[in-house]
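Quick bug: Alkaline shock response membrane anchor protein AmaP output formatted oddly.
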Amino acid sequence: MHRKSAINRVLLALTGILMLGTALLVLAGGFGLYRHLRLTPPAGWPLTTPQDVLLDDADRTRWTEEIWWWPTVIAVLAVAVLLALWWLLAQLHRTHPGELSVGDPALDGVELREGALSDAMAADAGHLPGVRRARARVDGSSRRPEAHIDLTLTPDAEPAQALQALCDGPLKRARRTVGRTLPATTRLRATPHQPHRAQ
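Here's what came back:
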């Protein structure tokens, strides 16, 4: 999972939980469920009966005569709007290169999607000696794509040899395909040895 999608899911989940909890509290008070179910809400709990309001007149007008009240309200709302706009623009900003030109110089009208390049690199790296499983993804911008490769090695594999084979094979072919230097980050994982029983 990409970092941005993980942050988005966490923020959406927290927002959803907050909104759902608030809605359930309002419905419980509006329908008088506390009285019907003979539940006693905590002291000071808002909206416990259908006649209750969230903020009474005293609460709503408590600080309106204070000189700091309206500038604070406006500042808080402005910050909330700016944060919402920042989040929206962050969603519109692409973190994937999309289509990549092929060849050097680029072949006119020939493009390669980053997903196809990722799949090809993963399949190519999966056939290297000493590699049990390979995963690859390409992100960044279309001008500066970056490759991220995860290799799971067999127990008897040499990490240095596997890394050299990756650079000389799949990465070199991918760079030749897109006609540019393709910075790569590689993560190596070792498959644990199976325990052997001593005779």
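Actually, after a second look the formatting is fine. Residues 3-30 form the longest helix (28 residues). Closing.
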